[in-house]
Amino acid sequence: MDKILVRPKGPLKGNVRISGAKNAALPILAATILGTEEIVLEDVPELKDVEIITEVLRKLGLKINKDGNRLIIDPSGLNSYKTDYELMSKMRASFLVMGPLLAKLNKAYNSLPGGCNIGSRPIDLHLKGFRALGANIEMTHGEIKAECDKLVGTKIYLDFPSVGATENIMTAAVLAEGETVMENCAMEPEIVDLANFLNKMGARVMGAGTSTIRIRGVEKLGGCTHQVIPDRIEAGTFMVAAAITGGDITIENIIVSHLKPVIAKLAETGAKIIENDDKIRVIGTEEIKPIEIKTLPHPGFPTDLQAQFMALLTQAEGQSAIIETVFENRFMHAEELKKMGAKIKVVDREAILLGKSKLYGSKVAATDLRAGAALILAGLVSEGETEISEIHHIDRGYEKIEEKFRHLGANIRRV
């Protein structure tokens, strides 16, 4: 098993280019099932999760050629509505093929999805949406079968603004007969990117990025060329890296509006932030100020940056608090940070941090994807060597992470 070793080496400085967003690429890749002509996707990150969903698509009959961060996809060979159990069990986002399969073939047989163990993420909202569109759902022994004569547009209210459910129902509805109105939708930038991709192929999706999405069904979708949006979570991770090390990093290939809550909270800690079109410069401060954070669905503070900010706040001068409202089991990294000397008290969904903690290099494990990033950040300011295991989680969401950190001057290597 590979491990990542991190040693402190002072402030990080330089420029880093952000990769395409994992959380945009995965639903877009699933939605390529809907096409009938060649699709070219650009700036697709080279990640384990992308590999898995690409393999899921190949087993369904799609032809996919890879040229670096560019994928050329021929969806015309789609010949199966059954997904591979082993692949599906590795990654939750693989469940996003269900909507497109149901729309295209009127059938979808899926295994229950796997992924990071960060809390319950029930798929009942996905299934509720499919049923509303006219699908019959049957669940047996870890498998879900969805079938319909045809999907028909309707009104769907989501009990919670789930990103995955919004994406899955949207991709099912684009070929449904008539109009579908989805309410209380997730408003994340990745939803907007998916809608833009679908519309380029000929779909009629309106309102993505707001709580109400209207979809007028069309008979078929064609092909297109589409560039995946930059990864706002990777951008946020490197912004925190500048702040925690007292460094000076320019983060390139970003969309500033996607990072507003992160910019606001980082500024509260005392970091200096200079915005400039598609890049942002973050200059760390000698004294990190304590803050309070509450994670919320977009446009609130993203849960996917909670762990990284926890690492940062171990170095704040005073007491900070983090309230996690999105996932109930997303403080597992707190125990790993405590092994390094962090003073953290977790009660239910709130973490209290008593800074400034003296951190020491230790043997720790990445309990999930973002926890792994947080441990790298903590290792950058710990005395001695930090050894991070279970780094397959990190590889699911960060492209060439050690290479990017080394380019900024970090002492980091994989063994």
Structure commentary:
It holds the Pfam family EPSP_synthase. GO terms for molecular function: UDP-N-acetylglucosamine 1-carboxyvinyltransferase activity. Keywords: Cell cycle, Cell division, Cell shape, Cell wall biogenesis/degradation, Cytoplasm, Peptidoglycan synthesis, Pyruvate, Transferase. By secondary structure, the protein is an alpha+beta fold. The chain folds into 2 domains: 4-18 and 230-414, Alpha-beta prism (UDP-n-acetylglucosamine1-carboxyvinyl-transferase, Chain), CATH 3.65.10; 22-227, UDP-n-acetylglucosamine1-carboxyvinyl-transferase, Chain, CATH 3.65.10. 31% of the residues lie in helices and 24% in strands. The protein is built from 14 helices and 23 strands. The chain has helices spanning 22-31, 48-59, 85-88, 98-105, 124-132, 163-173, 189-200, 232-245, 260-268, 306-313, 332-339, 369-379, 392-395, 401-407, and strands at 4-7, 13-17, 39-42, 63-67, 70-74, 107-111, 136-140, 143-147, 155-157, 179-183, 204-206, 212-216, 224-227, 248-252, 272-276, 279-283, 292-294, 319-323, 344-347, 350-354, 363-365, 386-389, 411-414. The strands form 6 sheets. It has a 4-stranded mixed β-sheet with strand order 21-22-1-23. Strands 2-14-16-15 form a 4-stranded mixed β-sheet. Strands 4-5-3-13 form a 4-stranded mixed β-sheet, covered by helices on one side. Helix 6 (163-173) links the parallel strand 9 (155-157) and strand 10 (179-183). It starts with a strand and ends with a strand.
